Protein: Kelch-type beta propeller
Amino acid sequence: MGSITSPSSSASASSEKFPRSSVGSVVVSSKRLEPAYGIYAVFSYKEHIDARNTSCVMGCYDPSTNKWSHESFVPGMAENCVLKNFAMVSVGTSIYIVGGSIYNVEVRSQVLRYNVVTKEWSTCAPLITPRHSFACSVCDNKIYVAGGQSTLDCAMGVSSAEVYDVLLDKWTPLPCMSTARYKCVGVTWQGKFHVIGGFTGNKMPFMDRCSAEVYDVANQNWGHVIGMWKLDIPPNQIVVIDDKLISSGDCLNVWKGEIETYDPYLSLWYPLRGSMKKNLLSFSCPSNAMNDGQTSEPLERVCLTMAPIGSYLYFMAGYRTTGDPSSCCTMSLVHRFDTSAMNNQWETFEPVEIEGERELCSHCCVVQLP
Structure:
């Protein structure tokens, strides 16, 4: 594992503003999380709407203060190249950025490790198979990946899988899944690595796209669950809270108006009590938030991801102003749902204005801070 240095911000020092220019960054709730957590996400970022330079940056969201902070530029990225369709997971106080693709350039096998305590980047052993749009999850402090696409010019997925030992810095091949699939979602549930949904061009039957492959870590073999997802469209994101699978939508409709949880006995997804919130993604802001403006401008949503912390589920949305073509700012709005509460389960934090335009590159990950 080799150490690397994050790109210097001296060439674009003002990009440091990206997470720090905020408006009303005060939480609605007085509750504080113990222990401390950080929600980390990677964004493509440009400071001005007409800027030619696009950076790939990591930010950290503090749930206790409703504030974003600049963490680091992602190293090893050529100018104006943005990494997408990668997996981002945490093991201990380290974040791993696995694989991904750079538009019209390459599918990557590179694996990067970021230590949130020392703020240092290092390179890890690369994937055996380059891949993007794949399933990834952590089980027993090992990183499991499966499926995805290995080239830019092919609409077919792969069935291969592999596991990374963070202590040995080594990837080991796993048995292949029964079906090749990409845009599948990975989640660890009940001690097993689940690869849910996805598709492979026109050759994958509907029933397979609605199914899941389940890797039994103890027995080192795959199982197949028919109809676990039910939809022809792949899921957007699936997380676990209190040993329950949680979803909010698919890759075309990321918010369906309520949170759904999976019943393994009936093989059905059903609404979580109290989770209905039709206006989760509806948001407009004053045209001049700093000067008590009375008019509102429509905002275009550019990202949505969710993060589980304890019994809380955070929904993190980003919006770009569409009314003024000369403006360049992103509004961050966070909702929190308490799965353990009997009433008043939703809280909405004050919106935060972030200078510049940023767009989510992959789903976030949560780190428990020391």
